[in-house]
Amino acid sequence: MVLAVLVFLCAQTAFAHPQKGEAVGFLTGFRHPISGLDHVLAMVAVGLWGAQLGSPAIWVLPVAFPMVMAFGGMLGLMGVPLPGVEYGIALSAILLGTALMFEIRPPLGLAAALVGFFAIFHGHAHGTELPPGQSALLYSMGFVIATGCLHALGIGIGTVHRWAWGQKLVRVAGGLVAMGGVFFMWKAIA
Amino acid sequence: MINSSKSRVPLYAFVVFAFVMCALPAEAHLNSTGMGPFYDGLIHFLLSPEDIVPVLALALLAGLRGASYGRRALFTLPVAWLLGGLAGLSAMTATPHPFVAAAWFLLLGGLLAADAKVSLRVTTALAAVLGIYHGYLNGTGMGQFDTAAVALLGLVFAVFVLIALAAAFVVRLRAHWARIAVRVAGSWIAASGLLMLGWAVRTR
Question: What predicted TM-score, i.e. pTM, was given to this entire model?
Fold first, then answer.
């Protein structure tokens, strides 16, 4: 009994779990983009807008966004400063939501440029927030795949656009995204 | 009757004790025995995303270009991997550079996302360089074991199977959306490469 008590008293820390905030793998990276509503709104809106605009925007926008976002993330990781990141993120939700609400149909190049421009802000914010860790590869893959899944979610919801009621639903969703953007802009300013 | 069975208890106990004392290690878990060198090599590849992802990207790229590209990659990459691995077996150490790993992700993912019209010669060169580089890194890690050559064969076999399955899967895709889905996978690989590049700079 005494021996058991002594053994228990001498127990060392197990280190069986990652420390809080440490980037350790795929799941940690996967959770990061979906942990902030401001990012989620914008990324789902990109998918919705692609579905609303139809082919080829339906795949050009979701391909452009992760790549440019990763570029922004790379700048953030490198420590390259980018002013007004929070404003840019909020503005992305406002503009994408407005585009959805009024079914704005710019040329494909302009739509891709707009999405890419705001993707830099989202990526930079993620890049500066990324915690230190050992598994950059798995973390990065989880991060990018989660972003892609959010776009896919938007595209999936946007498939209702083929019906009249679906078109109204997508426009309402755009209004909600824009309202969310206004809220985040207010928070950024306040 | 009861007395005679009671008298045999110490004898049975002694026999059981003797058997227990002579017990050999069960080796019931694979972490003590491994799966044999061939399957150890095979599993090593399947559990290494830094190896799998570039191979997958090259297979998808070759598959998008057509059957002849897929066939060329199918035979070039495993052979190059084997040659690189054999060269690596005699090397002492090699540290994989994070910039190079990110560059492979960027290059192959970018080509795949853009559905780049690479020539057969370029595909062959990409497969050869990728195979030699990754094979060499694998070989240096295995060099300390006696059965390294067999493990390397298992690894190369896994490369062959993966590239055969992935390229063949893409070659037969005809639907426009399916081919676009393959390109989206390429954009994700390239994006991961960009983040890895930033991470490598940050931790340098």
Answer: 0.80
